[in-house]
Amino acid sequence: MKKALITGANKGIGFETARHLLQQGYFVYLGSRNPSLGADAIAALKAEGLASCDVIELDVTDALSVEKAAQTVAAKTATLDVLINNAGILGQFPAPAGEDGVLNTQQVFATNYLGAIRITTALLPLLQKAAQPRIVNVSSEVASLTLHQDPAWMYYAFKDAAYVPSKTALNLYTMMLAFQLKDTAFKVNSVCPGYTRTALNNFTADGDPADAARIVARYAMLDEEGPTGQFFNAAGALPW
Ligand SMILES: NC(=O)c1ccc[n+]([C@@H]2O[C@H](COP(=O)([O-])OP(=O)(O)OC[C@H]3O[C@@H](n4cnc5c(N)ncnc54)[C@H](OP(=O)(O)O)[C@@H]3O)[C@@H](O)[C@H]2O)c1
């Protein structure tokens, strides 16, 4: 049975992706910074008959938490097939002025960018033991520098100094990691789940989390012919 770890999986797109991978026969470790919310998520999945899951306490902004989580996973499994870097925050939008704005950017980068690097680095040894390791960085179309230059693009006005550049930086991490692992069986991609109804946007979006999860899961389950070092949404490849 292939094993996957999803960060921020107690709710939203992460939770739905866990459900989707469980339905596809994966064992899923649900990362949750709040163990009680993680336990509730596991109970909900088990109530649906999706029993091959476990909660891992994990705050990606906390080095000790990440170290403990990696040790816990390593004690439970010899290999990890999939890592989905899903944990993310929007921060304040629009950002406050002055130093508060800088602090907002710092917090958003600490989660969306540095957090992904921290947990990936910690889990790389376990991923390297899998035959076909897959890493999905959950990004956003708003990270595209190319699209940000197009006034006709629907998110043209969605420009800020925190969330958007944190996901652009995450995309560069995808590129870097894919390059570093290019002579291996790894596939590393950035995936935009689409504008989705979750707590991140106060449930204002139309997109169904189950549809978002299918897109994310597709790149977690790539076969050996699949792409690496690229950026996708539901419609296909996105420009960097
Ligand atoms: N929703 C959209 O329209 C949309 C569009 C494009 C991309 N995305 C991306 O999709 C991903 C999932 O977002 P979502 O929409 O599902 O939002 P969500 O419902 O707010 O879920 C975010 C998850 O991340 C967790 N998280 C936040 N900070 C964390 C930390 N420091 N350590 C570990 N976990 C942490 C949250 O935990 P708590 O429950 O403890 O807060 C929660 O489980 C994010 O990376 C987001 O940027 C979302």
Outline the structure in words.
By secondary structure, the protein is α/β, with parallel strands linked by helices. It has a single domain, classed as NAD(P)-binding Rossmann-like Domain (Rossmann fold). 41% of the residues lie in helices and 14% in strands. It contains six helices and eight strands. It has an eight-stranded mixed beta sheet with strand order 3-2-1-4-5-6-7-8, with helices on both faces. Strand 7 (231-233) and strand 8 form a beta hairpin. The protein is globular and about 45 Å long. The N and C termini lie far apart (34 Å). The model has no long low-confidence stretch (mean pLDDT 98). NADP nicotinamide-adenine-dinucleotide phosphate binds next to helix 1 and helix 4.
Query: Roughly what is the average pLDDT, rounded to an integer?
Result: 98
Shape: globular
Q: What strand order characterises the main sheet?
A: 3-2-1-4-5-6-7-8
* Poorly predicted spans: none
Total beta-strand segments: 8
Number of domains: 1
CATH level 1 name = Alpha Beta
CATH architecture: 3-Layer(aba) Sandwich
Tell me the number of helical segments per DSSP (H or I, 4 or more residues long): 6
Q: Sheet bearing the most strands, described?
A: 8 strands, mixed
- State the end-to-end CA separation: 34 Å
**List of distinct ligands in this structure:** NADP nicotinamide-adenine-dinucleotide phosphate
Rounded to an integer in angstroms, the radius of gyration calculated over CA atoms is: 17 Å
CATH topology-level fold name: Rossmann fold
**Which superfamily, in CATH terms, is the homologous superfamily?**
NAD(P)-binding Rossmann-like Domain
Structural class estimated from helices and strands: alpha/beta
Name the helix and strand elements from N-terminus to C-terminus, one letter apiece.
Answer: EHEHEHEHEHEHEE
Provide the β-strand percentage band: 5-15%
Helix content: 40-55%
GO molecular function: oxidoreductase activity
Keywords: NADP, Oxidoreductase
Family: Belongs to the short-chain dehydrogenases/reductases (SDR) family.
Organism: Chitinophaga agrisoli
